Amino acid sequence: MKLLKLEIVTPDGVIFDAEVKQVTLPGSEGEFGVLPEHATLVSLLDAGVIVIDQADNSEVAVAINSGYVKVDEEKTTCIVDGAVAISGEGSELALALEKAKALLKSAEASSTAIASAVSRVERIGKSL
Amino acid sequence: MANLKEIKRKIGSVKNTQKTTNAMKLVSSAKLKRTEELAKRSRVYAAKLTELLNEIAQKMQQSNVEGIDNIFFKECNNPKKVDIVFITADKGLCGGFNAQTIKRVNRLISEYKAQDGEVRLRAIGRKGIDYFKFNRVELSNEIIGLSAAPDYKVSSEFISEVADSYVKGETDKIILVHNGYVSMIAQEIRQDQVLPVESSKLQLNAVSTSELEVEPDDDDTLLEALVKRYIEYTMYYSLIDSLAAEHSARMQAMDAATKNAKEMVKTLTVKYNKARQEAITTELIEIISGMESMK
Hints:
The complex is a heterodimer. Chain A is an alpha+beta fold. Chain A contains 2 helices and 9 strands, in the order βββββββββαα.
């Protein structure tokens, strides 16, 4: 199966750089999924959760506040202001969830968007 | 004998200076490490952002809707009014670091003045402000404290103000001048054109040729947001870069000063010893000649 190169860059550096199967992004016009060889696209990103379907079938979620994404046939580059990966176990996970929620709440987006993103984060936290 | 005392006092004072400069060197090298790390991390982000902006600009050029008619990209061939934003340090004792930036700014001013342009200066950092104030050059903006501790919010506010005046047509071109970090022992003057975004920068490796889709559909919203972010980040990154350069320049200058002080202590010690020897010789001669005359 073909893979897609995904990069997530924040002002603090590159936080994710790997080949993945699929990625779901919180676009400003609605959530959209990107598979390998997606047509070229540039979009604004809102506060939300990026869900990454990794090559080994595991899922990773990253909460972001806002940013841009550029998709082309080979590579997807997300340029975001702030990002928190929701991962870990036990207290680590709880801490990540707290951070993610704080990040989302600080975003300059509509309250509904933030609320839905926060509940999404909570759901992901429970399922892990 | 007074001479001896004098030299001894000098040695003491030079030794003190040496201690100070050495301490400053250590402080700077510690700060440099931290700033360098920060710069390294944000460099990736800045580069990606520029890449993305360039790509969009190029796509717009290719699809050639109406060329690039966005105000941020309109190249001005004959700029009448130019804003120069420059970054200097708040503190001195860092060799030619500030002087170099000021020199470049002065050169730019005379260049644009020669073309009948109007130049406005916006200064960040105490040293640059002091210099131009002393020379009675008007500054339309001045910020102290930002170059020593770059803050994203403050720098964004500052550059947004500058960008606003560009959008309003009060200025045709915005240039950012700062002394950038190259390595531990080297700095280099960097001069960037912030607005309009230079299309000559677009040296892209021809990637995909497929049509570019943009979301939201309205190109301007995205472009505007992106350009805004781009200039904000360029500003912020320049501040960090400048700070790293400042620390490395200071480290170098203080290293040189410490070495010079050491050298000075050496020559002064030699001088002191010679003077002491001389005094002893004179004394001996006096004693001997005194004894001789008693015979």
